[in-house]
Write a structure and sequence with these properties.
The protein is α+β, with helices and mostly antiparallel strands and about 675 residues long. About 40% of the residues lie in helices and about 20% in strands. It is built from 20 helices and 25 strands. A hairpin with a 5-residue loop joins strand 1 and strand 2. The two termini are about 40 Å apart. The structure holds 3-[3-(1H-pyrrolo[2,3-b]pyridin-5-yl)phenyl]propanoic acid.
Length: about 675
């Protein structure tokens, strides 16, 4: 970071014209209510800052001017984004009369959309522009190379602390934005490597013409660096997300361009393939924004896929009367990336991630109809495989319908009795009640005794449930444990799922903290992800957090949920008791060359000398009902993890990895972490 050459008083408010004062007020509003502009002030909002700046560089790439983007996280926690685009204009602004660079950096919504036609794509989910990032940074600077010169300006809390200064000559072009997020405005200012790199990778897949470098300078051991560049674009993307499954056909790639009425054209790109699993995985983008809620582009693709494949199937099955195929049958095992570029996207829906432009549906449908027909005609072998898979799906669908009807009829006959194993709660409110799905009968027993029966229901499961990723829907519905869950929740399954009918406000998965427990949790999550996704989207699904350790000193008991908590507690208890005692010399324990288990044993022995008992809970069943209530079930004291979908790809990657065919990536993944769970203190 260079030092500011200009003293802050240069930017004192008196120097500003009336216009600029309005500008300042605009940015003050951003600082007053940051969440209004960037979504929230937590980790997500923080990372949004990087995204906002990178999106501006991506816009340059889309306009055909930028090939390289370098994102760096500096040792002090600041972030910088460098691109080789045209550079933000530096000359006087036609209306404001000050440097355009300053206008772009300090005016809300002046991001660069000066002319709609030069900007095919507007970046940023909230589209707030780089000025917003500036306003939310305690320090920022921008360096622009343009017209053979290099210019620089610095800012504090979005207010210029220097003029736009010509700092030298330069042959290159481009923009460098450096910013240090304001600690007083964010809950956290620590950029996460993974969170940032996943988005940069995604952008590289979606924009094959750019190379994105990502450098993290923070680690003591040296920089971490990644280079994201995918010549194959979204074809590589499909390969990447489906790398854990066996593919049925080569990836099919479709691209079409439709001239726009106002100048900018609509570009539709789709890459898809079929794998040997049964779920559908369609991820869609509009102008690089992940449209989680879908929209007209997805509808257009789906209807063209159904129509084209159905026609083809009808032609080859003329003689033998096969079952009638429907849309769902063509989406079993389908993995697709849909990427649309459109001049003026209209985003709708709860999270503003659903494309509303009506014309796009027809455009995509026509493109896919044409190109897919051509593909099927010239690849008869692949076409046959796809149709055969759809036939199998249809047969399974019909069988599933029968067994669903059976389940329904049975329910009707038995007056919709709840499963016998369910210990229901006495309250009958779908808002205030919760159900614990518990692994194992003994833990289930403790939970039944420990719970508050007014609002907590317990459903014990025996052993592992079926892996739904590896089974067709009729088999899934035949599974006893899964049927028990469906009946207990009351809200149906798959396409019949109706969140209104859910009998509880929270669904809490409670399994041991060991490998078996985590496997069961994953199986349950996969079930919910694939067949009751709305539960996750509505934030109704949670994971209970039982403690790992109990510490006991005299009559006092403490619980620790992880190793560092255990160590902290141990310290605290020791300090408390040493207040009353003469200080004893501390014996240093050599810490190297020890296995984790050895050092844990050591710790337990050491604690024992101080009269502190540490015991490790092996499983939920080891806790008595009171302990289970105190530590894991009492809403006043427990911690729950809320399961979130997060970004669509991340979630599907997680599930594909955990439940796919190949074992190695799964092990690697489990060892790394679980992205789909976010901490939530209830
Ligand atoms: C306004 C106008 C032009 C480009 C930009 C802004 C611009 C903004 C950012 C932010 C990060 N990198 C950027 N690169 C460019 C158009 C410039 C022209 O017409 O020459």
């Amino acid at each position: 970071m260079k030092e500011n050459e200009i003293l802050p008083e240069m930017a004192s408010r008196n120097d500003y014209s009336e216009d600029s004062i309005k500008v300042l007020e605009g940015l003050e509003a951003v600082r007053k209510r940051p969440a209004m502009y960037i979504g929230d002030t937590g980790e997500r909002g923080l990372h949004h800052l990087i995204q906002e700046v990178v999106d501006n560089s991506i816009d340059e790439a889309l306009a055909g001017f930028c090939k390289n983007i370098t994102v760096k996280i500096h040792k002090n926690g600041a972030c910088s984004v460098q691109d080789d685009g045209r550079g933000i204009p530096t000359g006087p602004h036609p209306i404001k009369k000050i440097s355009t660079l300053q206008v772009v950096m300090c005016t809300l919504h002046a991001g660069g959309k000066f002319d709609k036609n030069t900007y095919k794509v507007s970046g940023g989910l909230h589209g707030v522009g780089v000025s917003c990032v500036n306003a939310l940074s305690e320090y920022a600077e921008v360096v622009v190379k343009r017209d053979g010169k290099e210019f620089r300006q610095t800012y504090s809390e979005g207010i210029p602390t220097s003029e736009v200064i010509e700092v030298g000559k330069s042959d290159g072009r481009g923009t460098y934005v450096y910013f240090l997020p304001d600690k007083t405005l964010f809950k956290t200012v620590e950029f996460k490597y993974d969170k940032t790199s996943e988005r940069l990778r995604e952008l590289a897949f979606l924009n094959p013409e750019v190379t994105i470098r990502f450098i993290d300078e923070r680690p003591e051991e040296g920089n971490i660096e990644d280079v994201f560049h995918y010549e194959g674009g979204i074809v590589d993307f499909v390969k990447y997300i489906d790398s854990h499954n066996t593919q049925l056909v080569d990836i099919i790639y479709i691209k079409g361009v439709e001239p726009g009425e106002t100048g900018a054209e609509t570009v539709a790109e789709i890459a898809f393939q079929y794998n040997n699993a049964y779920n559908e995985n369609v991820i869609s983008y509009v102008n690089n924004i992940n449209t989680i809620e879908g929209g007209t582009h997805v509808t257009g693709f789906r209807s063209a896929l159904t129509r084209t494949l159905n026609q083809y199937a009808a032609n080859i099955n003329k003689k033998n009367n096969k079952v009638q195929l429907v849309g769902d049958d063509f989406r079993e095992g389908l993995t697709a990336i849909i990427s649309i570029k459109v001049a003026e996207p209209q985003f709708e829906g709860q999270t503003k991630t659903k494309l509303g432009n009506g014309e796009v549906e027809g455009i995509v449908r026509t493109i896919v109809n044409d190109k897919l027909n051509q593909y099927l005609d010239s690849n008869p072998a692949a076409a046959k495989r796809i149709i055969e898979k759809a036939q199998l799906a249809a047969e399974a669908r019909i069988a599933a319908k029968k067994s669903r009807e059976l389940v329904r009829r049975k329910n009707a006959l038995e007056n919709s009795t709840l499963p016998g194993k369910l210990a229901d709660c006495s309250l009958n409110s779908p808002v205030d009640t919760e159900i614990y799905i518990v692994e194992g009968d003994s833990a289930g027993g403790s939970a039944k005794q420990g719970r508050d029966r007014r609002f907590q229901a317990i459903l014990p499961l025996k052993g592992k449930i079926l892996n739904v990723q590896k089974a067709r829907i009729n088999k899934i519905l035949e599974n006893e444990e899964i049927r028990t869950i469906i009946t207990a929740l009351g809200s149906g399954f798959g396409e019949d799922f109706d969140p209104e009918k859910l009998r509880y406000g929270k669904i809490i998965l409670m399994a041991d903290a060991d490998v078996d427990g985590s496997h069961i949790r994953t199986l349950l999550l996969t079930l919910f992800f694939n067949y009751m996704k709305d539960l996750i989207l509505d934030g109704k699904l949670y994971i209970a957090q039982p403690p790992l350790y109990k510490l006991k000193k005299g009559r006092l008991e403490y619980y620790a949920y992880n190793d560092s908590q255990r160590d902290e507690l141990l310290d605290r208890i020791r300090k408390e008791s040493s207040k009353n005692k003469v200080e004893e010399p501390v014996v240093e324990v050599p810490s190297d060359e020890q296995t984790e288990e050895e050092s844990e044993n050591e710790l337990i022995l050491e604690a024992k000398k101080d009269g502190i008992q540490i015991s490790r809970f092996k499983g939920l069943g080891e806790m008595n009902p009171d302990q289970l209530w105190d530590t894991t079930m009492n809403p006043e004291t427990r911690t729950l993890l809320q399961v979130t979908l997060g970004e669509a790809i991340q979630a599907s990657m997680v599930f594909q990895t955990l439940m796919g065919d190949k074992v190695e990536p799964r092990r690697e993944f489990i060892e790394r972490n679980a992205h789909y769970v976010k901490n939530l203190d209830v």
